[in-house]
């Protein structure tokens, strides 16, 4: 063990060394929020996520701009879990979605395009049945959107959700035979969420910016102090991307072999020092060919403790509640669910390197 780590252990303190497993990139091209997200996903990882004030400082130091998109937005989602919303296939009416309301109906016109409406309005609606002879039912009762969702979930499966359902022959026939009235479908605008799906509760809003939110459903940096504001998503702005600096190696190696591989080809076996890094690594682990992936943490019998090979103490952990194994030949592996486990160093697993 290196002397620097030994000194920290003797001092009995957990010093936090910030190891960034992601980096920000400021893009000066002006694009809409959706165009900016596509650009970031093509060239990097995604639009920038911000997990704490340390990330705010990093963004402030990366550029002089005070008007640039970040990855926070109010996304459209389908009511039925597991159905993905695809903007390129959406059946919006001309000019939609173009108001601050958050629920979607199928309009009464012949083309049955989608319009945005207040969720408190009453409309008839369409339920989806996962089982049964008929998969779709037009409910001849007027309810607000949440009441309609509850009705469908109680008596059927859910509100009709997704293009596969809406474009099916049975659904099209049913709609052609139904009366000319507006009908709720299962599309709604969710609360503020990060583009890459990470569940960070951290927000850094400028208090004055939330008074006139209206149809401003995408977030941007606005102040030299790093505060955020919202704006109309179609407006053209520069933006911040982020790029993760970890890579999954889909080769089966022992822990020592994995450590040597990472140090020869990249930087090191990955260390995890906070919840943001945990999310990045967890995302990679889900794509592994083995049930577990090696991390850069091992056990030392001499001092009876776990430590990161990058000279970082274990200030953050995500251990599973499982019986521990005995012996000195122990290292840490992450399961696909993100939990950490003790494994024998001689096992052959995929592993994750820090770039």
UniProtKB/TrEMBL annotation:
InterPro entries (alphabetical): C-type_lectin-like, C-type_lectin-like/link_sf, CTDL_fold
SMART domains membership: CLECT
UniProtKB keywords: Signal
CDD domains from the UniProt entry: CLECT (cd00037)
SUPFAM superfamilies: C-type lectin-like
Domain C-type lectin residue range list: 24-128, 131-242, 240-354
Positions in coiled-coil regions: none
Pfam families: Lectin_C
Keyword Signal: yes
Signal peptide: 1-21
UniProt keyword annotation of Chloroplast present: no
This protein's name: C-type mannose receptor 2-like
Organism: Notothenia coriiceps (black rockcod)
Gene name in the database record: LOC104941079
């Amino acid at each position: 063990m290196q002397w620097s780590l030994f000194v920290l252990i003797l001092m009995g303190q957990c010093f936090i060394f910030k190891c960034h497993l992601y980096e920000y990139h400021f893009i000066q091209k002006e694009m809409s929020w959706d165009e900016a997200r596509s650009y970031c996903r093509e060239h990097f990882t995604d639009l920038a996520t911000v997990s704490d004030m340390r990330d705010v400082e990093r963004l402030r130091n990366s550029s002089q701009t005070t008007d640039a998109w970040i990855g926070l937005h109010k996304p459209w989602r389908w009511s039925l879990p597991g159905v993905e919303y695809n903007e390129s296939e959406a059946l919006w009416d001309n000019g939609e979605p173009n108001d601050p309301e958050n629920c979607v109906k199928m309009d009464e016109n012949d083309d049955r395009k989608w319009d945005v409406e207040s969720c408190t309005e009453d409309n008839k609606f369409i339920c989806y049945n996962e089982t049964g002879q008929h998969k779709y039912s037009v409910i001849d009762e007027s309810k607000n959107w949440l009441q309609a969702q509850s009705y469908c979930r109680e008596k059927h499966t859910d509100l009709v959700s997704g293009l596969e359902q809406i474009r099916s022959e049975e659904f099209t026939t049913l709609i052609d035979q139904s009366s000319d009235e507006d009908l709720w479908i299962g599309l709604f605008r969710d609360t503020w969420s990060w583009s890459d799906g990470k569940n960070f509760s951290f927000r850094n809003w400028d208090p004055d910016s939330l008074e006139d939110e209206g149809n401003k459903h995408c977030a941007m940096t606005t102040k030299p102090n790093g505060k955020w504001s919202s704006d109309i998503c179609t407006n053209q702005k520069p933006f911040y991307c982020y790029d993760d600096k970890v890579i999954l190696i889909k080769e089966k190696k022992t822990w020592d072999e994995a450590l040597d591989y990472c140090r020869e080809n990249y930087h090191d076996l990955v260390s995890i020092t906070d919840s943001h890094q945990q999310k990045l690594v967890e995302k990679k682990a889900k794509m592994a060919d083995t049930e577990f992936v090696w991390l850069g943490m091992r056990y030392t019998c001499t001092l009876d403790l776990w430590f990161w090979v990058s000279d970082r103490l274990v200030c953050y952990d995500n251990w599973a509640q499982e019986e521990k194994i005995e012996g000195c030949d122990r290292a840490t592996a992450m399961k696909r669910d993100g939990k950490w486990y003790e494994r024998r160093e001689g096992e052959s697993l995929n592993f994750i390197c820090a770039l």
